[in-house]
Amino acid sequence: MAESFVFPKRMVHLDFHTGPAIPDVGRDFDAASFADTFARAHVDSVTLFAKCHHGHLYYQTQRAERHPGLAQDLGLLEAQMAALHARGIRAPIYISVQCDEYAGVHHPDWVAMDPEGRMVKGGGPLAASWHVLDMSSPYRDYLTAQYREILERFCPVDGIFFDMCWDQPSCSRYALDAMLAGGYDPERPEDRAKYARELVYDYMGQYRAMLDEAQAAAGGPPAGIWFNSRPQTNLAIERRWLRHIEVECLPTGGWGYAFFPYVARFVRPFGLPTLSHTGRFHGTWGDFGGIKPAAALKYECASILSQGMTSGVGDQLPPRGVPDAAAYDLIGEVYAHLQACEPFTEGGTPLSDLAVVIDPAKGDRPGPEGLGIIRALQQMRAQFDLVAPDADFGPYPVVIVSESVPVDEALRSRLEAYVAGGGSLVLSGAAAVGTDGQPALAGQGIACHGPSPFSKVYLRPVATLAEGLPRTDHILHERSLRLTATGEAESLCAVVEPYFERGWRHFCSHGQTPPATLTEYAAIVQCGRVITLAFPVFTAYGRHGNLPYRELLRRCLDRLLPQPLLRDGGPGHLEATVMRTAAATVVHLLSFIPQRRTDGLDLIEDAVPLVDMPLSVRLDAAPRRAHLEPHGVELPVAWADGRAEVRVTLLDGHGLIVLE
């Protein structure tokens, strides 16, 4: 055991959801070969299973839930842990929480119930899926007894990973009684949801305390504990029970390629050690025989590293206990690359010019607005964090308030103080007005005239914003506000309205009604260091991908931030992040293109070369050296106007520009 809280760099999350009909669990397990597999793949931590979604246990126990196909003389978890520890590899323990098929079948009254009295079970009673258990029922005592036994048998542990810990509303008799006793009204959906969240908080606090007590009693160091399937946007509250953060994101398993950067940019300002696990699967969890392309896994893991986080790869151990050799060939190739990068990223902190204020209550699925934020700003190579309305805006030169964020009195006063202190501000769409329909802030230089009666209008930017765009009135696909510039404020983009609103009584051609009238209304207004967009720029870009939306936003940001951290001459797909280590400023470059290969699957097969691309970084002083790593290539560097300038050729998709 380590002497202090240790955080992995290259982890494998080793699923083992093994149904009771499998007869030969662990039959071919060999401890030395098992550990060698992970050591050769450059893995330093493997999350191992004590209990799976089927409700079965994989260690030596007298409990009836022990997997029936596991040989009586085999303590699989014990043998796995011993083998890994002997090779210096950590082995945190996995425990399934609300998914427990064994308990659901043997104790159906413990299963969560919906308001219509049906058991909560994915896909219904005939589906091949797990029951969802109600933590208001005696199931909680049952699970707690399992957890206590695991702590007694295995402490000191390297960590505990609790899975399937979402808020689960229930109308079981246990939940109804508990809600009534707690003063909740079970007939109100919002009360059922509130009780479900408070119930999770209660067992999170209990299980964290149990771990700390057992770990101390065993003479062990502090251990990490993670409650998975929780909304990371709620971390401001839930961090009290945590020492670290884990982000589950299998892009090909339903999360998509926008989920990780959205969540990562929100959680990284919390400053907790963070890892994210993708998967080696072609699809989602349990995709036996599914191996994704090496370029896809490299992109996913390099993206994690570029956010200042460490990597995990999800795998599932076949029932007989022998890891899939092809999976570890793949993982080993990618983890060797990460290990070569780590000397240049150790202790690095991502840098940001922009804070984008989002509404945490919307959860951590990006939706069109979040997709627009990620796509637009990453394609610009803007350096940004996502923050809650109560975040500290002081470190950021520019704050953007996204369109779904209500600007209440508290946020209004904080934003006005930020601007008065020298900050620059962009307000998008509905965030431009308060609940009274008037300007959200004093000093915006706008008058508000309500929402546009037209679902679609046209944008005509002034010459300085229009440069490089097609010379036309650009369709705006989302409804905007009617604003006019007042005082010394400047209209940067006029609104052209159509002949009429399209409807069944009168319409024109196949799509939107053509533009007709140049109006007094402004789509973009600048007043000093405050720019107001009358339309929801991120939702519009996320839904429609119309490049003028992104380019107009870029030109607005150029007015507020003429010297951004990073400039480059790269293509639109390029991703770049800037971090600071004790020794250098490091720029991650990622050049890959996810392609839509099926109706629901984006995949990466190849890296895209960058050739002689110019890149410029804002620095406090001229660097003495620039080099591309882990390739070991020296780069000539020029210095002018507070910026270091290099040219880079990168052929394999990921590299680090290290400026010492």
What does this structure look like?
Among the domains are: about 355-560, Class I glutamine amidotransferase (GATase) domain (Rossmann fold); about 565-660, Immunoglobulin-like. The protein contains 15 helices and 31 strands. Helix content is about 25%, strand content about 25%. The mean pLDDT is about 95. The protein is globular, with a radius of gyration of 27 Å. Helix 11 links the parallel strand 10 and strand 11 (about 385). The strands form six sheets. It has a nine-stranded mixed sheet with strand order 11-10-12-13-20-19-18-15-16, sandwiched between helices. It is α/β, with parallel strands linked by helices and about 650 residues long. Helix 1 (about 30-40) crosses helix 2 (about 75-85).
